[in-house]
Design goal:
mainly beta; two-stranded antiparallel sheet; 17 strands; about 50% strand; globular
């Protein structure tokens, strides 16, 4: 039987991808700087976050994504800086993003802040045609072995507003709609994939249910031209500023559960599990999707350690 992911990638390569989706995370709220450069430095400390996602475990060639980000405010200024590396593998395709973030924050009133940011970097694409189940080996568009280290620039923008209990962010991580050509290997290939702009909007509010329990409903919308609107809704509870338990729903896609532990003032770890609500979720070879993340934060001064912010 043909492997589903291989078939999908074969169609993408032979027809050209005109509306591909960027990698997705269930625990995006712990590393917003990946999609929104305006968040850089907004936690007030050096924050380093690593995240791994294995999607549709058991399905050969299924997506695997890793990200590592670090961002911090610059002392005695309104500037924040960040650096992110993201790798996404699906079937024969391997994509790597390396980006730097700059943000500038303006106080709004006594408690709120408004930030705008810019993201710039590079995107590296590799596609190994030898991993495909090719129906027609003589197809001129699938000759030459694949795509090797195709490099393209990325530039993105973001806005972020937050108070002690509320936040909202708008961003476009990449404004450049790049066509990935591979003319050096095969002149018959017009393009392998086409980058489209991804628009993100995320917002949430923290309710203090008691001295020891906080409740945060949150939502994120992602829009890509030519693809269905993606909507994520989540509800998380924080107990004693130490344990987070929550659930999430991705419209017409998946339901998720997540748990996080603030081990000390610096270190937090978390785990999430997704189950598809589509027909793919009923497949015997699909064991769901798993995420692991770790966040480490370095404080310059012990006096600056405050109750952990819930976003």
């Amino acid at each position: 039987m043909k492997k589903i992911i291989t078939i999908i990638l074969l169609l993408a390569v032979t027809l050209g991808v005109s509306a591909q989706q960027d990698p997705q995370f269930t625990q995006y709220m712990y590393n917003p700087v990946v999609i929104n450069p305006a968040y850089a430095g907004n936690r007030g400390v050096l924050s380093v976050v690593g995240l791994h996602r294995s999607q549709w475990v058991g399905l050969d060639g299924a997506p695997r994504t890793q990200s590592l980000s670090a961002h911090a405010p610059i002392s005695n200024s309104r500037v924040g800086l960040g650096l992110s590396v993201l790798n996404d593998e699906i079937g024969p395709a391997d994509e790597t993003y390396l980006t730097a973030d700059f943000s500038y924050t303006i106080p709004v009133g006594d408690e709120a802040k408004f930030s705008f940011g810019i993201k710039a970097g590079a995107h590296l694409l590799n596609v190994d045609f030898n991993q495909l189940d090719i129906f027609d080996p003589s197809d001129p568009r699938l000759q030459g072995g694949g795509v090797d280290n195709l490099l393209s620039p990325t530039v993105g923008l973001g806005l972020y507003y937050h108070s002690k209990k509320f936040y909202i962010g708008l961003s476009v991580p990449n404004l450049l709609q790049t066509d990935h050509f591979d003319e050096s290997r095969n002149s018959a290939t017009s393009f392998i994939a086409q980058e489209r702009m991804h628009y993100f909007m995320s917002t949430g509010y923290v309710f203090n249910l008691s001295d020891s329990v906080k409740f945060k409903p949150a939502t994120m919308f992602k829009m890509v031209p030519g693809a269905p609107l993606q909507w994520d809704a989540s509800a998380n509870f924080l107990f004693n500023d130490k344990v987070t338990v929550g659930a999430a729903y991705r419209w017409s896609a998946a339901v998720s559960g997540l748990v996080g532990f603030q081990l000390n003032d610096q270190l937090m770890i978390g785990f999430a599990y997704d189950r598809e609500t589509t027909e793919l979720g009923n497949a015997v070879f699909n064991d769901g999707s798993y995420e692991l993340f770790m966040r480490f934060e370095l404080f310059n001064n012990v006096d600056k350690i405050i109750t952990p912010r819930f976003f």
